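@channel sequence for tomorrow's demo:
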Amino acid sequence: MALSNSQYDHLMRTYEQKQLDNEFQLRKRYEKAYALIPELEEMDHSISSLSVKKARLLLDGDQTALSSLKSEIEELSARKPALLKSHGLPANYLEMHYQCPDCKDTGYIGTHKCHCFKKAIVDYLYTQSNLKDILDKENFSTCSLTYYSRNHIDPLPQPIKALEDMSFSQDPAINIKLKESAKSRLVGTLKAGGGMEQKKGEKFGKLNVWEGVITFILH
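structure tokens (generated this afternoon):
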């Protein structure tokens, strides 16, 4: 389902905010790590000083400066994970943490929308559709059998008979398999379902009703 420009801009702003939040959290982790492990901060300062020193040598014509810089930085960096773990912190504590590692919270993998962005579209359109307010009122919990007449004469089985012993389930299951040509076609929400169980010899079956919300995107 296509988004309007304003809807797309709104979603992209949420992703920009995620990236800012990630950077903020990383700075906070560095502050905590430096306070807990002073040696770690000294190590990072050494890497910075080393980079500046080697850059000057490279400008002065030292062709080995770049390769030696890489080697020395790798040696210092390799000590970080062990240092963090020895103080009870994860080895990747000072790496950027993403809500969606696949797209790194950009919403895109290359030029294609990430699965998290597709889900964000569904959630946003569902919120804007006001379906939630409707489904809060119009669902099986508000179903009343008094709607059906017990005195109505009908040659066909009366609905009230089928509904008298209905039971509810919170565990519905739907399996949909699409052809490639049918994908990227539909976004929607469902909240309802049911089935009839009729044992041999019974005139009227027992209605088994499940209730739940399904938000889906076929892509």
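heads up for whoever presents: Residues 207-211, 213-219 have pLDDT under 50 and may be disordered.
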